[in-house]
């Protein structure tokens, strides 16, 4: 693995550390269809870290039978188009428990900017709150004055993750898109407020906003170096 890919791996590990079962990273290499999972994703599937080598067959075997065909089609499309993607489906862990997950992936490139795979994150969004609680929290989030805190709150609300994991996801997108964290958070907050009711009804709307916020943020100015995102 090149030094640049090592750096990408380290960034992903740092960005999603501290969230044992709610969020974790993955990588998938197109040439040999080789998968890598973080410890968090291994645990999400019911495995102790280091006890399993993920393969496409294993990945698909954990998908809920009703969702397996959809995920297989997404993997096939990914192999042919090399495009970013997002999907939400159910996985079944080794104990038989069903997890609702969202998987978001972006292009993985080598030091020559050649696309060699995809990488991104799993988020376990198994429902833990009803619609009334979600609606109440939207009003609470809207009162936050700090834009990064506001964007964190929106990620927490939509994906059902804690504050640390929400901040880690913001950092991950900031690093991967070279857009300052504050500017990216502003764009995400602005996008969320514009389509708030639609996002509450369908989290997939927010997946798209999260993956494309950097493009709108750049239009408004402020890119960032790999080491400065504040």
TrEMBL record:
Reactions performed catalytically: ATP + protein L-histidine = ADP + protein N-phospho-L-histidine
A Pfam match: PAS_3
PROSITE patterns: ANTAR, PAS
Gene Ontology MF terms: protein histidine kinase activity; RNA binding
PAS domain ranges (all copies): 37-82
Keyword set, alphabetical order: Kinase, Phosphoprotein, Transferase
Domain ANTAR: 128-189
Name recorded for this polypeptide: histidine kinase
Organism: Mycobacterium fragae
